[in-house]
Amino acid sequence: MAVLWITDDRFLDHDTGRAHPERPARLRAVIDGVRRADLSDALVPTEPRMATDAELLSVHHPSVLDSVQQVTQAGGGRLDPDTVLSAESEAAARLAAGAGLAAIEALDDGAADAAFCAVRPPGHHATPVRSMGFCMFNSAAVCARALAERGEKVLLVDYDAHHGNGTQDIFWEDSRVMYVSWHQYPFYPGTGGLLERGEAAGAGTTINLPMPAGATGDAYHRGWEEAVLPAVDAFDPDWLVLSAGFDAHRADPLTSLGLAAGDLPTSPMRSFGWYPPVGGSRFWRADTTWMRWPTRPRPRWPHWLAPNGDRSRPPEAVRARRWPQPRLRCCHEP
Ligand SMILES: [Zn+2]
What we know:
By secondary structure, the protein is α/β, with parallel strands linked by helices. 30% of the residues lie in helices and 14% in strands. The chain has helices spanning 24-36, 53-56, 62-73, 89-108, 139-149, 165-170, 217-235, 266-271, 281-284, 316-319, and strands spanning 3-6, 43-46, 76-78, 84-86, 114-117, 154-158, 177-184, 206-211, 239-243, 290-294.
């Protein structure tokens, strides 16, 4: 399997200060992890591109762009108590939002089977009208909206420890994008309750799995199996976009969840028969990245890890599912 590897040194220019939790070291950890895992023969290095105004405005009010521009043109400052910008931050955020769009374009061309975008700043707290929580522009939402606009259905899974309030708001009434989030609850930003399920045309296409402090991968996996998979089957997505914050790890200092590195991406990936396209626990322990790849591959049962620990066979309910053939133009996707 070939995987697009999309990152750029300009992401490191988004300078939030040495003591800020979302600092360049986060991305360097991802890049170092990939290097240590010796994945170079599986990766297809690909350049990101800047998202245009029109692409950002597909999910944000113009005031969001104006606010970011004002602060960066003044040389830096704060958008809110958490969200620190430097002069180079707007360029980094536009590049982060455009990385997913570059990935779609390359996957459409058949350049690889999946894509991993190692970017910063993060994006899932950025709402239609406000940047917040370390986030300027909602990169995953820009990507999902672009796919939806061309008639494809997107499953957007967010396993960051915080609820993606911005992503939820953006697709609250949009039936073309199903938003699924595990997160610590109650916790910042305060949203993500079980009863938040979307409205109007989007009723039922938002699914929240609020988790108490200390929740482990078993709870994540059970929530996915029992609460999410039936809805995903009915939704029948064309693409999977993962909003992949890694702060649900038990060692993360800002959160109180109990996941191990191997727990983080596994439920959705195993459900679609995909393992992390680039693997190794060291890789997944890093932060501030997101990835996507096309759905609908056939399951690979020998790799299934059943709740009872039997790796050879999937649970009965999963074996009974109907597994359609991949139908994307590239050999596969998110
Ligand atoms: Zn987070």
